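> tool_call: predict_assembly(chains=two)
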Amino acid sequence: MLGRTAHSIFWMYRYLERAENTARLLEAGHRMSLTRAEDAANAEWRSVITTLGMRGDYEQHFDDYTGAHVCDFVLRSKLNPLSVLTMLEKARMNARASRSAITGEVWEAVNEGWMVLSDMLARQVKESDLGTVLASIRRQSTLVRGATHGSMLRNEIYSFARTGTFIERADSTARILDVKYYLLLPSLAHVGTVLDTSQWDNVLQSLSGERAYRWLNSGRMDSRSIADFLILDPRFPRSLAFCYSALRENLSALAQLHGEETDAHVAMRAAEMALSDRRIEDIFDQGLHEFLIEFIASNQTISNTIAEAYRFTA
Amino acid sequence: MNQSADQNFDEMHKPDGSIREAYHGYNNWLSKQDASRMRRKGSEAESVFRRTGITFNVYGESDAEERLIPFDMIPRIITANEWRRLSRGIEQRVRALNAFMYDLYHRQEIIRSGRLPERLFRHNAAWLPQMVGFTPPGSIYTHITGVDLVRTGPDEFMVLEDNARTPSGVSYMLENRETMMAMFPELFTQVKVRQVSNYPRQLAKSLAACAPPCAEGKPTVAVLTPGIYNSAYFEHAFLADQMGAELVEGSDLRVIDGRVQMRTTRGYRPIDVLYRRVDDDFLDPLTFNPNSVLGIPGIMDVYRAGRVTIANAPGTGVADDKAIYSFMPEIVEFYTGEKPILANVQTWRCADPDSLKYVLENLAELVVKEVHGSGGYGMLIGPTSSKREIREFRAKLEAKPDNYIAQPTLSLSTCPVYTRKGLAPRHVDLRPFVLMSPEGVDITPGGLTRVAMKKGSLVVNSSQGGGTKDSWVLDD
């Protein structure tokens, strides 16, 4: 396949994944803000903006962190170069550019999603409609994923699609954890103050992991097992370990097809080493924040080396 | 324009209101349809087109970047008999065009014989000196041609225009049929219509048959598009997808080791046949337009070395010229030794002083076109223009008569469209698509029917608000 098409496919799936993750983050933020006093709610909205890496852009335009401003900025504001609306547009543009590499079902799912959402996001979203809009964003992403799973040939194109998805998802999980890492530090849990389990709920919700976590832990909650779950549990589809196992699988498929490994494979294996055969205690010993910073940087490196190794650009 | 339906030939209705033979089967079905169901189907079709992204981009309109071409659900129907004659005429014309291209770039017998004035192509912007003496693989120049036909009476089909440069619209021909079959499946069991869905396979086969000798095994075919902002991008992607070919842009291609190669994830790989949907000017910045960012530097050298096939061959745009068009009857006769089966529309060449005088005196009745124009731009339709528009056009014409030809305002045939108030006649034309390779000529039965959606309007171009219809050729 063309390097440019691989590039389009990779980024189409990255943007779709990012739009979905962003919606999830807003949902969790919104839930949190409903149960908080104004200051705490605003702090929550600030952490949403921080997680998305939009603080610089946001603070150029606003000096407060209200739900209305944050949601509008994140979802659709023209002031924001990476609004959900822009991401959906970029995903669609990339789908259009690689139209002959994806199935009609995938294209229709992307195009229809874009039509529905660009209409919903044409004006400011009322708080009463926020839940519907966010659910629609996740739903559209689900439809594309389903169409991809059910209709795409398992070839090189599919591998690039999945690679983009998991690079983005790993990045998103790591960022969410990094913004909230202090909540999960064992030292804080040991302080013995009243445990703020709603904060933990919030972290799990931003990753759609609350149900799975409860199911696995029979309702018990402690920071250690939450961190363990989100970072190392190979069964949870948004954990770092899961993302990297999927990444390895898809990069291996590419290596097999091409008959050779690339720098991306080397970088991926090194990163995976840091996840496999490790206990959460080891990561706490290293420092959770330091671990996550390193992870995010190496994830970025893998993305860059993939682009280079597979000739995304001339 | 005050042409009403009864002055024009209508494809469906005779002047007395009875149904023509072609439409008997269809009318039987239509008369049993419920009006509200038909209306609902019409809006369903539109949402299918939106969802599947069958759109086109209009140049110079930033607000509506992707638009739908209006689709009308009443088919344009051609009988098996009519089609037999049409397809013979089309094949004859396309073979003549290809022979003409070969001759123009070789011995120029037609000029030596005095049948065609030399100045006609010497001053033609589409004429490429780089093509002189070069023979493309299989001696094929016009791999894909669209022949625009109009009808003025029961047996009066005429060629209005030849499109040998980069004819577009074939994806609409295919999608219109898909849409009709999805909307009214029972209709196709009642009326037997010849299928069109083979076109992409035929295209792939025809292009592969023109591969250069250096192609190894199954030839690699790629579609070259200017990119996603081009007005016909949907069609480029569609055809690449349907053929299983790569859809490439200039930036994906490079000349390496004397071959045109595309940047794949495994490195550069040679292309044997390039179905280009960019104009000659944007093919090779080293040979043509140095400012082009779309082209592939050095591709013309590879082409002239016979190591890649470009379809259509560079320089075939000469045939689209409307002054050349006026000589088509002579051209057909010269190369085939036969009388043309399909007539031309009477054409006055404004370069000729007597013709110019006539045209200037009769501007209000004539259609005047630029010789290199296309897409319905830059033309004057006398009968529907204001005095001021005619005055302004007259000045342009007098300043540069060589640049224009004129034709009578034809009473184009009409075909009913479905409106909220029932059927209403609108003017139509027909663009059949023709493939040519050393293995032969292949014409898909039917083609693209374009329809002027406004009452009385003669302009069918999609860039000017025209729509399309499914076009049927009845099976015997």
